[in-house]
Amino acid sequence: MADKKTTSYPKEKINILFLENISDLAVKHFKDSGYASVKKINGALSEEQLINEVKDVHLLGIRSKTQVTAKVLDAAKKLQAIGCFCIGVNQVDLKNATSHGIAVFNAPYSNTRSVAELVIGLSIMLIRRIPDKNKAAHEGVWLKEAKGSYELRGKKRWALLVMEISERRLAYLLRGLE
């Protein structure tokens, strides 16, 4: 029989709050791992709303719109950690969090896939002159010719843009363009 993994505090007593549309898979993962009290709120909260919500929360998961101020941290008597599922942690009063012994971490690559998809989509739209053709169509002109439209394949400038975002992280998406 496998040994039961334990934490230093019973999982069923740990309260977790996710804000700003944190993935339902994250909620499911925590519940499947034995955390009984996992709450998800789809939007960001005002400072006053957040103060009311964090009073008994141990773990807080946020994105970039939620501002965790000194007042919020003062009200969060049980808070142990804040996970910022975005690039930075500038929405958290780090000095105050540190003084309260609250760990703050981020997931800087959590939105890399979305950014990569956006860059690829916008690049294709621009190189194929979709905005110009869309404008013309709304003015009653049908620009059916491919004149001035190109493919991304072989374009050095586009390759440099991709490398700026992180070529290694885009590799799996780019395989489809070869």
Biggest sheet overview: 5 strands, parallel
* Secondary-structure element order, N to C: EHEHEHEHEHHH
C-alpha-based Rg, rounded: 23 Å
Q: Please give the share of residues in helix.
A: 40-55%
Indicate the CATH topology of the largest domain.
Rossmann fold
**Strand fraction:** 5-15%
Q: What is the annotated CATH architecture of the largest domain? A: 3-Layer(aba) Sandwich
Mean pLDDT figure: 83
The CATH C-level name of the largest domain is Alpha Beta
Whole-number tally of structural domains: 2
Per DSSP, the total helix count is 7
CATH H-level superfamily of the largest domain? NAD(P)-binding Rossmann-like Domain
**CA-CA gap between termini:** 49 Å
Task: Give a brief rundown of this model.
The chain has seven helices and five strands. The chain is an alpha/beta fold and 178 residues long.
Task: Report on the architecture of this protein.
The chain is built from seven helices and five strands, in the order βαβαβαβαβααα. By secondary structure, the protein is α/β, with parallel strands linked by helices. The chain has two domains: 11-106, Rossmann fold (3-Layer(aba) Sandwich), CATH 3.40.50.720; 112-177, no CATH class. The chain has a five-stranded parallel beta sheet. The longest helix is centred in the last third of the chain and has 19 residues, at 156-174. The N and C termini lie far apart (49 Å).
